[in-house]
Design brief:
- This protein has two domains: 10-146, Rossmann fold; 150-223, Orthogonal Bundle (Arc Repressor Mutant, subunit A), CATH 1.10.10.
- It is 48% helix and 14% strand.
- The chain has ten helices and seven strands.
- The chain has helices at 18-31, 44-53, 70-83, 98-101, 119-130, 138-145, 160-170, 175-182, 186-199, 205-216, and strands at residues 10-14, 36-41, 58-61, 88-93, 110-114, 134-136, 221-223.
- The chain has a five-stranded parallel sheet, sandwiched between helices.
- The chain is elongated, with a radius of gyration of 20 Å.
Length: 224
């Protein structure tokens, strides 16, 4: 009888603290004992070098180490992401710099989990990320929302029509549904959305969601 075997998924871990590496190994084995941890490094630079010889399916990493600051770590991480586009990346970090974190929003294979979440929630977020869902833990969403705190009246720049379209988008409607409800063309609805994003200096739907989350006092997110 022929039996099909699920390919074993391989994992790399990066953290500058050996104790944290041990904790991550334990956490990952509790999620799925079949995961094989192939690499453990103490800096992103060393991890990039190791991946050249031993690619993996999953990378769990901080954004910095003793060898690199946040900006250098971010640049190295994004280089690795470009080199290995099929690799799932989980950034497990204490970083609260919204300007740094914002650079990760456009990459749906990169999830970001804050170290201050509860152990139960952290395990749940790791499971979701390993299942190729895009995860931003609640604390990360809160940090990202600070991008708008310096401008508490950002939505005052929008027309009533633009704000109305964004409200319906935020509550789950798509452009076609909004057009049908308002008896307008989808081109008109799309123009309202694009004009609003331009006024808010937003480039992606992820950033738009976070902007509206801060307005409507919402929490974290997992993209299915």
């Amino acid at each position: 009888m022929n039996q099909t075997c699920t390919p074993q998924r391989t994992v790399a871990l990066m953290d500058s603290h050996p104790l944290t590496l041990f904790g991550l190994s334990t956490l990952i084995k509790s999620i799925n004992n079949d995961y094989e941890i192939l690499l453990q490094e103490l800096s992103l630079r060393k991890m990039q070098e190791a991946l050249m010889y031993q690619p993996v399916d999953l990378l769990v990493t901080d954004l910095q180490s003793f060898e690199e600051d946040l900006q250098a770590g971010l640049e190295t991480l994004l280089r690795m992401n470009a080199m290995f586009p099929d690799m799932t990346i989980v950034v497990y970090t204490s970083c609260h710099d919204s300007n740094v974190l914002r650079n990760l929003l456009n990459y749906y294979n990169i999830s970001v989990i804050a170290r201050v979440e509860s152990l139960q929630d952290t395990e749940r977020f790791f499971r979701q990320a390993f299942d190729k869902k895009h995860v931003l833990s609640p604390k990360i969403c809160s940090d990202l929302a600070r991008v708008t705190e310096a401008h508490p009246c950002v939505t005052s720049r929008l027309t009533r029509s633009e704000m109305d379209v964004l409200k319906h988008l935020f509550h789950g409607m798509d452009l076609q549904q909004i057009a049908q409800m308002k008896q307008l063309s989808i081109k008109t609805i799309s123009a309202h959305k694009c004009n609003a994003m331009r006024k808010l200096d937003i480039r992606t739907d992820s950033e738009l969601f976070l902007q509206l989350s801060s307005v409507f006092n919402q929490g974290g997110r997992v993209d299915d």
